Amino acid sequence: MLKTEELQINIGPQHPSTHGVFRMLVTVDGETLVDLKPVFGYLHRNHEQLGEVNTYLQNMPFTDRLDYFNSMVNNHAYARTIETLAGVEVPERAQYIRVIMDELSRILNHATAMGFMLGDMGAWQTALLWGMREREKILDMFEYVSGARMMCNYCRFGGVVRDIDDWFITELKKLMQGLPHYFDDFEGLLLNSEILLARARNIGVLPKDLALAYSVTGPVLRGSGVAYDIRKAEPYAVYDRFKFKVPVGTVGDVYDRFLVRIAEMRESYKILEQALEQLPDATGGFINPKVKQQSLKAPAGEAYARVESPKGELGFYVVSDGTGSAYRYKVRAPSFINLSALADMCKGYTIADVVVILGSIDIVMGEVDR
Amino acid sequence: MTLSHLATEDVFVVERNDADFRAGQGMTKGLGIVFRKFRKALFGKPNSDRADTEGQFNVQYPEERLAMPEAYRNMPILLYDDATGHELCTSCFQCERICPPQVIHITQAKDPATGKPVPAAAKFVLEYDTCMSCGYCAEVCPFDAIKMDHDFELSTANHPELDVDYNRLLRPVSYYETIAPTMWSDVKEQAMKKLQNNIKRRPGDIGRDHGQKIKGGAPVAAAATPAAGAAPAAGAAKPRGPVAAIGKNMSEDKTAKLLAIRAANAAKRGGGAADAAPVAQAAPVAEAVAAAPAAASAAPTGPVAAIGQNMSEDKRAKLEAIRAAKRAERGE
């Protein structure tokens, strides 16, 4: 038999399929992957240190820049941490608005994440552009309420910065008329596509016990068959009032993660419907007027609050020494922790599968490096 | 697994469709959907309805632009009163303190006679290149002096230009009123009341000695321009008016085309104030464009004229000379 030599190559840091400045040091034997070392830090922005220098409010726009696809969710998670720390009450309407924004974020994130993954497979543009189209519609609405499309900076301690009005609700209902068509089209285009099946089925299998050992969360964990969703396991905001289901996979391969994300978009749609129905009127206000946003001081202590971000468990850990800024500030970023399982997911598959597996984890380097 | 606390009715297993695999069928179905979309995109009308998932969604920027929501925030600007020329800023340092990236730098004005601080800013520098557009400065300002602009076409090859000083930050209140009418009407009354109080504490020209609004050392006369004329005039004084920015690198006929599209759009929307102003302001450009084809028609006719449409005079002459030489060579 022919004796071949192992070869070490770099994929990235400047590579379109690494979804940012991320480097994979791979060892290949022929086309088969023997080892993979993820190397990151190219996008380090000192976020956690900045969080200890800034006041609590000043840090809010910086959280936008973590997972820049879902700044609304980041704001929500951060605001929830400081609210827990300082004991701030949030009006019900604000909770509903936050849920609406979170679920819209989830739809836009999954739509584009799946588009990008298919782009990595070679399904150039069609699937991605359909996702982008829906994302664009949602971003217009974010722009309307928050003033910015991606860097929303929308949440404040004890509420949100601006109330949603009739225009927003009308447009959201229109948007929701179109969404099921998009889901159907997307599924019809891809679900049984032989190319997708060949590239995704039984590729990048992450067994259940390994996923738990790596403390992987989000669609990656659910794709591996663990029914774990913070919205259900530890309902925050008003998530206990909605009826929705948690989709799980069976095998834990790329295809399962793909299916789980599509199913999650449909569940998010259900939550949106119920949230719009239950949305309280404006009498309760959209922000707690008692909170001094600019000079908020939290009592000494610590708090950890987490939300189910589209990528997994997003948590902020803040230690306060009683002053106006955090003593210690830590971000539990889902992309970063999900990425740690990459090497084990890739071993034994071909090098062409690596980009697909990476795409199926759905990482954002802004969150990985912080 | 014991990890899952979820009730079984809350969980469902996604369908993997393993049995459905038949070579070619799935792809044919997908291609059918793509073809349907493609047909709609080719023959459908452009649409902007959020409920639609078929048709044309493209916006031909920069010729076409989407309307911006009032809340849109890009870079901060400072406001001054049209009637008196007084700046609304009192240098209270609230924005400087809240600014997360710390890019606002204010120096308070002092009364030259007594040396005491006056509620006005002597210097105001904002680093546009480092600003993260969070909008906190506009949010905290108790005098509604700092607001977020809608102008996003700020690219420049000259980096130091992005340290914007007071003169270039100032916009008249009437300009802000055109970009965010309801947001301004909410705060207008109290902002103007506070300004009147501050004017009383400003000796001499302090608080209105910046910007182009009081050029020529006749502050009172220049500032007393009637409010009706103030809007377009101030727009012209603005360093980057929307039309100027777009037209900067554009050929004249493209500019004319763009203006026509905009005029049509404005007419369609019922001639909003925001649209009317730039069009009116661009009138001289339109005249210049109208004059250009006249000049072209005076030039030699035939194929040369067609080619030379966008050519300068000397280039056209040169081309003509080359052609004449070629003709002579061929012995015509």
Radius of gyration of chain B, whole Å: 29 Å
CATH class of the largest domain in chain B: Alpha Beta
Oligomer: heterodimer
Judged by helices, strands and strand pairing, the structural class of chain B is: mainly alpha
Helix content class of chain A: 40-55%
| Biggest sheet overview of chain A | 3 strands, antiparallel
Number of strands of chain A: 11
Q: What name does the CATH topology of the largest domain in chain B carry? A: Alpha-Beta Plaits
Overall pLDDT metric of chain A: 88
User: Greatest chain-chain interface?
Assistant: A-B, 65 and 48 residues
Our estimate of the beta-strand percent of chain B is 5-15%
Number of domains of chain B: 2
Q: Proportion of β residues of chain A?
A: 15-25%
The helicity of chain B comes to 40-55%
**How many strands, what sense, and barrel or not for the largest sheet of chain B?**
3 strands, mixed
Basic shape of chain B: flat
Gyration radius of chain A, rounded:
21 Å
Kindly, what is the distance between the CA atoms of the first and last residues of chain A, rounded to a whole number of angstroms?
48 Å
Order of helices and strands of chain A: EEEEEHHHHHEEHHHHHEHEEEHHHH
